[in-house]
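Can't attach files on this board, so I'm pasting raw text. These are the components:
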Amino acid sequence: MPYHQFDCSVCIPERLKHAVDKGEGEQLTDALPLGYLNTIPGTISERGCAYCGAKHVIGTPMKDVIHISHGPVGCTYDTWQTKRYISDNGCFQLKYTFASDMKEANVVFGAEKMLKKNIIEAFKAFPNIKRMTIYQTCASALIGDDINAIAEEVMEDMPDVRIFVCNSPGFAGPSQSGGHHKINLAWINQMVGTVEPEIYSKRVINYVGEYNIQGDQEIMKDYFHRMGIQVLSTFTGNGRFDDLCAMHRAHLNVLECARSAEYICDELRVRYGIPRMDIDGFGFEAISDSLLKIGYFFGIEDKARQIIKEETERWKPELDWYAARLKGKKVCLWPGGSKLWHWAHSIHAEMGVEVVSVYTKFGHQGDMEKGISRCEPGALAIDDPNELESLEAMYKLKPDIIFTGKRPGEVAKKIRVPYLNAHGYHNGPYKGYEGWVRFARDIYNAIYSPIHKLSFLDISKDEIPTDRSFATQRTFSDGILSDEIKNSTELRQCTSKYDPIPDLRVKSYKFPDPETGIEKEIPADKIARKNSGTV
Amino acid sequence: MNEKTAQERMEQLEWYITKHCLWQYNSRGWDREMQNEHILGKTKQLLCGENARKEDTYADRYYWCEAKTLVEAFKKYFPWLNEMDKKDIATVIHLLKEKMDYTMIKGSLNQELTKEKY
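---
Top answer:
Structure tokens for the assembled complex are below.
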């Protein structure tokens, strides 16, 4: 597994050990890209900062909270339409964003008084929200404003509110990952253990490292609830502030994105003896294994098997319709952190695509261990690529599609490579059995969209075909398929609704009483519950 | 079972774990040692028909359910496991544990494994 030398990075020798080619028969012990290191000056990295990692990734998906940045207003830009962690309370956390709007004068004279005024003003403007998180930024950290002291003062003046302070300025780490770490530890140190929750099931989990992108959390929560498992808290997508203060009362931490949230799971295990169970919510086999594992933990594997059977029967023919048409397509799997390992094997095994490259922007070496293990020989693994390296890789590998974020995604479009948004998704949710079919459908639509065929033609020099006036996706995708597949009455295209989430929000479920074990129906409104601190 | 067969079978089990499991990747070396020890230990016990539930703690239950799921998958993917005797199974799992300890801990190039705190 030799290191990969990019032509464009010969002049930056430090970059050499950040990329490797996975060779046949080679091991992780032969070579592993460096990771989680400061970006080399001048390489035009696409990383976020530690403030972004704390606030925009982990803090803000909490739904019943005023999230305020103590800093310049520009730090708050990641709001409505740039993030897609929806919630079942009308997406309060996405619709409204708050900043103390620091300016030069505040840098000179301090901004604590202004912050206090802004906090009180925000609570008064939204009387149904009683919880707040305050995020330090580079500017407020550098001038040394004591945000914790201001928060204490406000809580004394307004006893019905609670405020969490996260001191993770932008410069507090090599990338957003530094912010993930800081907010994980701040939350467990300051908040966990301060609330006693209502327990209504004898099986209780925290669902950790799940951000409810386009409803992922709600899809998975439906499976857990069908097994009679209470999801005490979700860290943090669609999560309630007070539930997250009660994480210490769960029996098991079910962890999805270990990159962003393993720290709190590890600490909960050490401090409270709650085991950490890593799962994969993507891919039929991976979800089935995950549900079965959770089922075994609570002694309800029969319930897990029932869900696996129902969901597989319902959705597998649709996945297979797409798999037949995606077989052999080349993919660059270039998400930010955890999806390089969540997806690498499942998309190959279940959709037949070939992963020709994996990369991570802010992952650590542990993420590369997982990603490289799960992809096939021949793949190029890159840590924190700069823009020129990404372009060079795409020109060389000639992928049919890349899965990445919107910034590198737009770069790919410019060289006519279709991209799917691996962070916010195109038409998610992508988790769960239904979500995996939606993902396959989006891949199919992206690869076979006729617009890409047109975009490859340059009318100033290319010959424009005149023998074909109209083409559809099927024109391109079905040409080489066997009649058996083309005419199959068993396989079918995705039948998922435009938005499958609203139906889940009105469902009620049966849970075994914690004392008696007798099953009781809990209505949907009790499961969703009100904003923290309100009656 | 000769050495070559044992090695080949161990590699098949290792392949399954690298493609499907996540428990072996905890971020610290000491943590990985514990995971390998408990989960592969219980895997061997389950495959050999021994009692794999030692105590009624959440931690023990967790290790057991990882092993239980692994054993179920192993038997589905590798039918030869059903025909092996206990001694041979123990040999293959021993080789697997040695390989996992080397790849994930002793020979690992992951520089975070030696950090003390999470």
